[in-house]
Amino acid sequence: xxxxxxxxxxxxxxxxxxxxxxxxxxxxxxxxxxxxxxxxxxxxxxxxxxxxxxxxxxxxxxxxxxxxxxxxxxxxxxxxxxxxxxxxxxxxxxxxxxxxxxxxxxxxxxxxxxxxxxxxxxxxxxxxxxxxxxxxxxxxxxxxxxxxxxxxxxxxxxxxxxxxxxxxxxxxxxxxxxxxxxxxxxxxxxxxxxxxxxxxxxxxxxxxxxxxxxxxxxxxxxxxxxxxxxxxxxxxxxxxxxxxxxxx
Length: 248
Hints:
Number of helices: 9
Order of helices and strands: EEEHEHEHEHEEHEHEHEHEHE
Oligomer: single chain
Distance between the termini: 8 Å
Radius of gyration: 18 Å
Structural class: alpha/beta
């Protein structure tokens, strides 16, 4: 029985609309009893939020199956020294950090942690860059530069802090293999018995490849067949959409 790590956007949904067949695929996987992680780089929504989002599109998934870059960031930080963080992000990220025992503060933080937020401003950039330049460790939930309609994402929010401080963050989310290892630990799974399903060669498939997983690319999202030829690595399987996957 293989473990399955499955991306959301471009695999299960387009915006909030169901990609035809993805509901049947997920429901079949759950009925078979495959351990499932529905994984997203987006740190703004909680597991309950994501459960509601997919439920509204007709995909019924238990809340505990969802794993986000906010959860993985909290998991990463549990393995580090220090417990004070200056955070640029929304409630789902701070919630996970509080659960991990962190104090959220702008007084001598050990870490500067950046996620997605629409309330980004000059003061945040100033404080974050100052803390990082003075030695706070710079952690970001994911390297994505933009979302739908070119909305700024975490990587873009990190850019001015990087330029001012001269330091790069550690990105927890895909394509980092850290988030894959963290998701596997979440289900007590092992890489040699896990499939990752994604729509993006540069994030999902690269992360899976680097973590030693069997990889499935679906061409219902970002990457198309022509994009596969541009990379030095290859997915193990390619399908038009999740509904066509027949390897699990």
